[in-house]
Design goal:
about 140 residues; alpha+beta; Nucleoside Triphosphate Pyrophosphohydrolase; four-stranded mixed beta sheet
């Protein structure tokens, strides 16, 4: 099964809601992030993607590494996504949909139960954001 390497963000606001995004032409919501450009580190990839897709200006010091996670790809049948994940907390004011994004939502555990979400989000990343809800 071919791998797709990405950097992904678990972005939480002060109320504990987590940001998820949906790209144009897709149905599942997922953590923001994307694929690396040649020579980029995982953190550099994520910072670039967050700026391009959401207008966020963050520094590497704003990111907390969560680890590497593997799951079925949400939009590419027969592929796996290998994600280097990072967490950060932000003020949601000014976050906007840009580039290939069609929609963003700030969700709670209750919202997550009603949305079509990417396997990586469901299996690994949202449980890190809401450990009590994962039990």
């Amino acid at each position: 099964m071919p791998d797709i390497h990405v950097s992904a963000a678990v972005i939480v606001d002060d109320d504990g809601r987590v940001l998820v995004v949906r790209k144009h032409g897709t149905t599942r919501f997922m953590q923001p992030g994307g694929k690396p450009e040649p020579g980029e580190s995982a953190a550099e990839t994520l910072l670039r993607e967050l700026q391009e897709e959401l207008g966020l200006e963050l520094a590497e010091a704003d990111l907390r590494p969560l680890g590497r996670f593997v799951s079925a790809a949400a939009n590419e049948p027969g592929h796996r996504v290998v994600a280097e994940a990072f967490a950060t907390t932000i003020d949601p004011t000014g976050v906007q949909v840009r580039a290939e994004l069609a929609e963003l939502r700030w969700i709670t555990p209750a919202d997550a139960a009603t949305l079509p979400l990417a396997p990586l989000s469901v299996e690994h990343l949202l449980p890190l954001a809401w450990p009590a809800a994962a039990r």
